[in-house]
Amino acid sequence: MVTYQYNCDDDGPTDVRLPMGTATETIACPVCTQPARRVFTSPMLSAVDQNRMKLIDSTKATSDRPEVVTSIPSDGRRKKQPMAPPNPMLQKLPRP
Ligand SMILES: [Zn+2]
C-alpha cells in the first residue's frame, strides 16, 4: 500500500492509501465529494533513520571516492609486537 496525496480546492489535502500503481488522476473528496486532484510529492525520506542513511552513503562513497592516506595512522593501534614469545634459552646467549 502506498499513500497518495490528493488536494481539494475547497477542503485542502487528503491522504489515501492505495495499492501501488492504482492511483487515479482524481478522486472524490471525502468531505465535499468534488473531484480532488492528485498531488505528486517526494517519497517519505524523513521516515528513514538518518544514522542508517549516513552509513549507507559513507559505504557507497568508499567505492567511488576511497579515502587516501599519506601516512600510517598514529593513534597507537599499530605497536611493535615481538615476532615470537621470548625464549629463555636465547636469553643466555652472549649479546654483542
Ligand atoms: Zn472537498
Which properties best describe this structure?
single chain, rod-shaped, binds zinc ion, four-stranded antiparallel β-sheet, 2 helices, alpha+beta, 96 residues
Would you give an account of this structure?
The protein has 96 residues and is α+β, with helices and mostly antiparallel strands. Helix content is 20%, strand content 23%. The chain has helices at residues 50-64, 88-91; strands spanning 2-8, 12-18, 26-28, 35-39. It has a 4-stranded antiparallel beta sheet, with no helix packed on it. The model has no long low-confidence stretch (mean pLDDT 85). It binds zinc ion. Zinc ion binds at residues 8, 10-11, 29, 31-32, 34.
> Overall pLDDT, averaged?
85
The run of helices and strands is EEEEHH
Structural class determined from secondary elements = alpha+beta
Biggest sheet: strands, sense, closure?
4 strands, antiparallel
Q: What proportion of the residues form beta strands (DSSP E)? A: 15-25%
Total beta strand runs: 4
Number of H- or I-type helical stretches: 2
Please list the strands of the largest sheet in the order they lie side by side.
2-1-4-3
General form: rod-shaped
- Radius of gyration over all CA atoms, rounded: 32 Å
Cα-to-Cα separation, first versus last residue = 80 Å
Helical proportion, percent range:
10-25%
Question: Low-confidence runs (pLDDT<50, min 5 residues)?
Answer: none
Q: What are the bound molecules?
A: zinc ion
